[in-house]
Specification:
Length: about 325
């Protein structure tokens, strides 16, 4: 089987470095986590596929399953699209800061590709997880596809189980960072942040509350707690909530942190900080802000905030007409 190869419609990274990507698995006795590591490189070559899979048939199936869950037919057309990264290129640099990324509930990891590639182009290593058994479809190391089950956001038992699996996945990935192919020996374990979209934001906040390795958190239109699942924790590390044009999740009213920033994106939707808006996501998911502007605004906001709070750079925070800072 063959599929047409073409560039991705997702906006290109804004940084100065070329980008590499390697897909791999990290495991323990109970879970297998499939991750994509995006990183700076000095070489360009064969582009990595946008849909992380080993062959066209698998790409087609992952794209179709993801399109059905996201109710966005354009996602199904991404099989054959190329990512803004070279496959398994050598890494450039050493002691690189790390961003561990978690997608939204039942969302595929490729929806965070644009943000991950942009961070990599600015000198970060972005490690994006798929949450096996929840994501629409994940290719396992033996070639099998693990399909996600029914999604029940109103079922507290289901949501507790998903959060437990997600935090387990995060712990495995943090433990295995030094063993990741290509990038593992070049990571700085003292400079690790987490970025999560929606339920991935809750995953990031709850993980940070119990794991001191995570030094800063960015939540992309997510929550600090979830009723019947997890209460908002108290953190002593910096947190950025980057929300949509809607009011933030009510759990943030109970959140306590010594360094909390909140910004929102005018005319944005729940998926504004993800690739869905470039893949045909409608106003109900992406708001009315054009996808190219959404990418510029959200990527710049995340990167500049991480530079300030994890790298210690004395730089101004991002300013755009669409970006509203509610703190500081």
């Amino acid at each position: 089987m063959s599929i047409a190869v073409r560039p991705s419609p997702v906006a290109a990274p804004a940084g100065t470095a070329a980008v590499g990507r390697v897909d791999t698995a990290v495991t323990d006795a109970d879970r297998t986590v499939i991750v994509s590591a995006w990183y700076p490189t000095t070489e360009t070559g064969r582009p990595a596929p946008y849909i992380p899979a080993t062959g066209p048939a698998t790409q087609l199936q992952i794209a179709a399953e993801s399109a059905a869950w996201l109710r966005t037919p354009g996602v199904a057309t991404m099989a054959g699209a190329q990512a803004a990264a070279t496959e398994v290129a050598p890494v450039a640099g050493d002691r690189l800061p790390v961003v561990l990324m978690s997608p939204g509930l039942a969302c595929p990891r490729f929806l965070l590709s644009g943000l991950a590639s942009d961070l990599a182009s600015r000198g970060w290593v972005a490690v994006v997880m798929d949450h096996t058994g929840e994501a629409p479809a994940v290719e396992l190391p033996d070639g099998r596809l693990a399909a996600g089950g029914p999604v029940m956001p109103d079922n507290s038992q289901y949501m507790r189980a998903r959060l437990g699996d997600r935090m387990h996945d995060t712990r495995i990935t943090l433990d295995r960072l030094p063993t990741l192919p290509i990038v593992g020996p070049h990571l700085d374990p003292t400079r690790i942040a987490m970025v999560g979209h929606s339920y991935g934001g809750l995953t990031a906040v709850q993980t940070t509350a119990i794991d001191p390795r995570v030094r800063a958190v960015v939540v992309l239109d997510g929550s600090a707690g979830w009723a019947g699942t997890a209460a908002p924790p108290t953190l002593d590390r910096p947190v950025l909530l980057l929300g949509s044009s809607e009011l933030p999740h009510p759990s943030w009213a109970q959140f306590h942190d010594s360094a909390f920033d909140y910004a929102s994106v005018r005319d944005g939707g729940h998926y504004t900080a993800t690739d869905l808006c470039a893949l045909g996501g409608g106003p109900d998911k992406c708001g009315t802000l054009p996808a190219d502007r959404a990418a510029i605004v959200t990527r710049d906001a995340v990167a500049s905030w991480l530079d300030r709070h994890l790298l210690g750079h004395d730089l101004p925070r991002a300013t755009h007409p669409e970006l509203v800072w509610h703190t500081g």
